[in-house]
Each structure stands twice: as structure tokens, then as C-alpha cells.
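Extended Data, panel c. Modelled sequence:
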Amino acid sequence: MKTTSLFKAVAFVAMVIVSVMNSEVKAQENSFITNEEVKNELVVAKTIFKKDGNQLYRHIRYEFTYDDQNRLTGKQASKWDSVHEEWLPYFKMSYQYSDNEITMLYARWNNSHKAFDSDVKKSVYELNDENMPVAYKNFKQNTDKSDWTMVSYNKADYTYNLLAMAK
């Protein structure tokens, strides 16, 4: 009897915690509004607005570029500066495709250089014959910016991915 009551109490507390967490997530989802710009059935820009009551405020803007096969080749983000009322560069990602790899470069905006040359990183995704990623390598650019140092090498675990997708 005590075990049943204890189990019911623990289950009730767990349900309350999940309910509170779920309502917080829903509140966050509703605090942003997205506006997408589409050209030739591809999203070329996306502006995210913060919602505060009945007011919308510019937050972040993404611009996308594609190659002739409609593959994503670039993503550039800008943050809204409400003091100067302008979009300021934030980060840039570029993608390069080869037969068995996709290379992604990431860089943050360096305001003093007026270029995307801060916190530069590279990831290389190895693909199998079905174009599914089987491994990825992460690199960090050396301080002299002439070469790359591998930071990690990870193989894809399809068993884990399949279980995650099934849930």
C-alpha cells in the first residue's frame, strides 16, 4: 500500500514537472515569428521577429544561397541593432560538395577587420554510397590561419539515430 501511494506521488510530481516544462517550451515557441522569403521554391531569406505582447521586434535575419542543383551553399546571419537601426553581420556558413564529402566552413563576424574571420571552424562530413553521413571531422583554424588542426573525428551510429527517429 505504501509503495503504491509513493509511486502515485512520484508519478504526480513527474507529470507536474513535465507539464510546467512543456508550457515553458510552448511560451518560447510563441515568442518568435518567422517571415520567409521564397524564390523559385527555395527559401532565400528568413527574418525572425521577437514577439512582446502585440509588438514585433526584429531579431535575426538569415540569407541563403544555392548552387545549380538547389543544394545549400551558404547561410549568412545578421542581428538587428536597434540603436543604429540596421542589420549587423553575425556569422557565415558555407558548404562545398564533392563525391563523398560535404565540407562546411563557419566563421563569426570580426568587427575590427570587417570580415568573417573570427572563430573559424571547419567540419567535413564523409558520405557513403547512399549519400548518408557515416563520419565527420571537426577542425579549428590555426592561429596563423594557414592550416587546420583536427579537433575530433566521430563515426555516425545508425542504431542510435534509428532509435531516436522512432521515438
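The first helix runs from residue 2 to 29. This feature is highlighted in the accompanying rendering.
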